[in-house]
Prior knowledge:
By secondary structure, this protein is of the alpha+beta class. The protein contains two helices and five strands. A hairpin with a 4-residue loop joins strand 2 and strand 3.
Amino acid sequence: xxxxxxxxxxxxxxxxxxxxxxxxxxxxxxxxxxxxxxxxxxxxxxxxxxxxxxxxxxxxxxxxxxxxxxxxxxxx
Length: 76
């Protein structure tokens, strides 16, 4: 499934402004089950790019890392 224009714009911004530690940045993006999510390591969440009310929360950083590695395709 091809991402829509809004998602493409966020992907491009994430690639351009990934940032270094301590700098402002756009959160990395991953795809899970045909949806695109921002990866927020600080809050231990995946947040839907198109619908901020849709999120997947994790109790620990380890759970988030395992989910990212096994069930997501990292875009940026």
